[in-house]
Amino acid sequence: MVSMSFDWLSKQLYYVDNIRNSLEVVKISEQGLVHPDQLIHRQLLNGLRDPVAVAVHPWRGILFFAEAQRPAKIYRCNIDASGCQIIRNSTLGRPSSFAIDFAENRLCYGDTLLRTISCMNFDGTNPYVLPVDSPIPVAIAILGDELFYVHQRPYSIRRVSKRNGGTGRIVREFTGEERSVFSLKACAPANQPIPDPSVEHPCHASDCPQLCFALPNTSSSSEAQPLTKRCGCRQGKTITGNITTGKEKKENWEVIVRKEQKRCLFREFYTIFLPFLL
User: Fold this and answer.
1) For residues 58 and 201, is the Cβ–Cβ distance under 8 A?
2) How many CB atoms lie within 10 A of CB 119?
3) CB environment 75-88: b (16+ within 10 A), e (fewer)
4) What is the pTM of this model?
5) Phi, psi of 268 (to 5 degrees)
6) What is the pLDDT of residue 266?
7) CATH level 2 (architecture), domain 3-191
8) For the chain, N or C: smaller number of CB within 10 Å?
9) Boundaries of every domain in the chain
């Protein structure tokens, strides 16, 4: 596990695993640690090429992830990992970390091979390199008007202006065994924003039995909410109940969307008893 990003509205933690070469999600229990048998977990994507970074934007219903194997790429997907598109595949060496600038609606990323920190719009347009003096940014984070990064050789946490860059000011230096910091998170209300208090997030108080994904709403109606809900289950299970919208199949993930008494059953159970449920 090399990178994590938390959806604070659906209480789901996204992470990339560079051993399994996958993007995965796990539901965070309000009770804290749970037995592995009770863990609500799902693998969203597999077969990735050395995944190294992930970031989610719950209010946009999108996520970003990066592959470091050459040629390196940065992807934008719906928050359930559907509809993925490459938004950056040039001027990339080895992307190392993401930070979403919620105030400026930008995605920033570090590159340890090119020794740069760059930012761009969420669709990959208007990329630019932040003028920082020779960074080796293992990890980055944004807090207010400042960008913090973990610098290699010598290991330290440094900060610069997120708009103007400059020479990194050392916040903390590391020695000995401490020189193994590969992640940096900035916790502040501005990094978990509520852009419009009048708009209810569909996963904030959803009736999904296990996982909830808030996807961009493609409806052209003027009354349509910006996000729409999609329910999901832990690995190896599928939703069952009274069918209202039919069956959708995505890779090995079968989802039956139901209106009442949503339950997640093992796929084998669902397969055997489907004729009786219908």
Assistant:
1) yes
2) 20
3) bbbbbbbbebeebb
4) 0.84
5) -65, -40
6) 52
7) 6 Propeller (2.120)
8) C
9) 3-191, 211-277
Instruction: List the one residue out of 277, 247, 241, 253 whose CA is nearest residue 23.
Output: 253
Residue pair 124/74 in contact by the 8 Å Cβ criterion: yes
pLDDT tens sequence across 243-269 = 333 344 444 444 444 444 456 655 544
Q: From CA 23, how far away is CA 51, in angstroms rounded?
A: 8
Distance CA 150, CA 93 (A): 18
Per-residue pLDDT reduced to its tens digit, 35-49: 777 789 999 999 999
**CA–CA distances in Å: residue 123 to residues 60, 76, 77, 120, 134:** 12, 8, 10, 8, 27
Question: Within 10 A of 257 (CB to CB), how many other CB atoms are there?
Answer: 16
For 159, 170, 175, 193, the CA distances from 155, given in Å and listed in that order, are 13, 10, 7, 31
C-alpha atoms less than 13 angstroms from C-alpha of 272 in its C-beta half-sphere: 5
